[in-house]
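User: Fold this, then the next.

Assistant: Folding the first:
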Amino acid sequence: MLGATMTLRSADDRIRLPILINGKAVTFVFDTGCGRALVLYRSASEKLGLKVASPSPDVIPRPGKVLLGETEPCTVTVLGLTGNIPFGILDTPSDIIPDEAGLAGWPLVRREIIRFRAVGKREQASIESSLPADLTGWLKVRVIPGQILKLEIPTADGRPLRVNVDSGTPDGINLRSEEFHEWRSENSGNKSTVEAFWEPAYGLIVREEVWADQFSLGPLQLHDVPVMEAKESDFEGRTRDLIAVLGMAALRRLDLIVDGPHLTAYLRPSETSTASYEENRMGAVFVPRDLQSPDLTAVVAAHSPAERAGVMHGDVLLKIDALDVTAWRTQPGILPLARFWMRPAGTRVVLTLKRGTQIMTVPVVLEEILGP
């Protein structure tokens, strides 16, 4: 039986796992939505001096999948075990440099007993030797066999709800489009902001985040979580009747024990989490229209601090305070811009924008948009 604890760092949204590659210490993200045991980013493989075979350009990946290169075999120590294995290699856009070396996926631990729980503001994932003696009050669900962590939640009408648990994303609940729009129409007054992020299989994604004081997935009750519409691509290549993906913001509201050997999991609302949700307090993001565009253009949430300050959809961002962001593709240190939107409420951010031929300066005061 393995033994290890993987801890989420304070004010962050990742569970990190230390790994040795050819004697060099690196850090991976523990990602239950990753279907391969160990994946290394190409930028990290270059730093480590590894030889890499790229995937064939003639092979077209299935929807929702990415093609991986592969390294030469490496001496790897992870979770107390040492072996000689190759890594899958994942490419990222040149302007996105990951903080970690790679991803440790669900296949690495799926035959173990894994416990997820928040301790104050931090999330922990630990490998346990046995289940707790008393599971009274826990919701028992089935684990769906596969390369990523999937749960089947029972319901009163006998039709189970199937969800993915994805510790590699900071999101709360990514809900299937039909269910999201139904829920959104019933909760039209809920507070919202926007987020932008990059995913390997799908590229740049921009979407609305909506706050839920309470959200029910059958008998599973979650409190104080952001809810987003999942893209159709989120479910391509996955279980057809999948209804939602639970990211870190949802996971941090739960205690979850996965009994891998018996394909069973146990859940209950967390009694120890004090984690807050790191939101976009401006209510706008600036993103390229496509991967070739040099301009960062605005996407603005309705009724947000940005909209009230005068920022409009399509405005081109030139500066944030004194920082010239127009060289974002070539100058290290400009990205990520999210660090400006996630400053404390009350922070004043001055944006220099271009609208058509007009240049303007717009001050925006950040506010708490989501949350209790």
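Now the next one, as you asked:
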Amino acid sequence: MQRMKNLMMLLALVLTVTVMSCDEKLNEDTTPEETTQGVAANSRLRVLSTDTINTSNMNTWVELRSSDFPQSITDYLAANYSGVGIEESWQTDGGEIVILLENDIVLIFNSGGELLIALDLGDFLDDDYDEEWDEIDIADLPQIILDYVATNYPDATIEEAGKCVENGNFMVVLDNDLILVFDKDGNFLEAWEDDDEYEDWEDLDAADIPQGILDYVAANYPDANIEEAAVNTEDGSFAIFLDTEIVLLFDKDGNFLEEMSYDDFEEDDFDEIDPADLPQAVKDYIAANHADDSIDEAEVDAEDGTIYVYLDSGLVLVFDADGNYLDEFDEWEEDCTEVPVADLPQVIKDYVAANYPGKTIVEAWYNDEEKEYYIELDDDTVLVFDEDGNFIEVLD
């Protein structure tokens, strides 16, 4: 039940037992979340190291959006990887452009947009992960790892450590729920967060869903199917995930409590914050970079302190717990699901070809709640269409 495992992080990643399968860890979705160390510190690209590119100085790279690509790269992606999403993209301090696709293909271009090499990120991870992680004493970690943690996470403490029997890699679990992986020589490879927000939820087989809940779903959502289900070990309540991106919550007796979207369910750990209480660094950044905008609202992730500021222009700014700028995105993207360009209704493609000749669709999303498509062109123009592909408006 992969969706439940992804949504609820039911596979705990902390080394609470003596051994842990390397395959169990490194084959999960380890797309890193933003941390106070910045996105570069957690990039999956850090495992990549070739004669063509060196990721050891990745903290000096500049994160790019697809709209920042030279036209030749946009054309190359459209011709060779249509429908494949972009997970990360960067410009190195040497000017090369590095793109990690969602299928784990890494494309490296020179500053002029010419392809230098295409790599499979999986080739830079060991193929054989059938051995185990042995728990080791923290004192037995290489000094280079201890120094890395002390330098990059001075406020964190190492809680546990492990060593992979197969390849000698090291895993370090910090008390801030961050997990770091190092190679056998102690060189940093990657980081991700051990998000235990849903540790009280357990996957539930469809056959074990109370009949009262099944009857409620059949009566009130006749066109929907149950994809996943979970039970809360703390209070016995149930969560039912429908294929319409809706989550239904029931109490332990099967009585309906509420309906919410998948996104709302995942973001339940966010607390609203008064804009007046934002860190001064956040206020200063907004004053300097968005002086004409007002703050509509702000919220903080109670899990890691990440701050989200919603401006009246529709832009969402993301900051770490200390107020350092991390990222930004348009608010309309928040409730959208990315759609492969190849899967767009033909009427939308025809409209773009007729009204924006020479322009390329670089990304597309669908808002299930509004029943609208959002289409981004390579000049940053965003077009909105209804579910039938009829043009609605151009977003500012």
